[in-house]
Amino acid sequence: MEDSTFALPATDRQLSYARALALRNQTLLPWAVQQDRRDLSRWIEAQSQLRPVAAALDSRPSSKQVAFAERLARIKRRAVPDECFRDKQMLSRWIDCNR
Asked: 55 near 29, Cβ under 8 Å?
C-alpha cells in the first residue's frame, strides 16, 4: 500500500494549535490541510517559524523606552526629537548616543 492512500485524521490538539497559529499570523488554515495529520504537522511547522503580524507591525517604542529617553533628555537638558517617538529603533539610537 502506498503512503499517500492512507491518511490519519488530525488530532484535536493539532487543530487547536493550528487555529491559534492562524489567528496569530492572520492567515487562513486550509481545509485540505486539516484533513491529514502529516499535512497539518508540516503546516504548523511552517507557521510556527513566522513572526506574528502584530509584532512585525508594531514599530512604536515601549512606554519604558520613552520614559527612559525622557529622563535622559532632562538630565542632558535636550529634547527628544518627535520622530523618535514614532520608531523604536530610532529612539534606541537616540538613547545610545545620549547616555
From this structure: no
CB 67 within 8 A of CB 85: no
Q: From 13, 32, 24, select the one nearest 48 (Cα to Cα).
A: 24
Q: Which CB contacts under 8 angstroms, 24+ apart, belong to 69-76?
A: 69/94, 69/95, 69/98, 72/98, 72/99, 73/98
Give the three cell numbers for residue 59.
Answer: 514599530
Residue 23 contacts residue 49 (beta carbons within 8 Å): no
Per-residue pLDDT of the chain (99 residues; tens, 9 = 90+): 455 567 899 999 999 999 999 998 889 999 999 999 999 999 999 999 987 766 656 788 989 999 999 999 999 999 999 999 989 899 999 999 998
**Its pTM surpasses 0.70:** no
94 neighbors 71 (Cβ within 8 angstroms): no
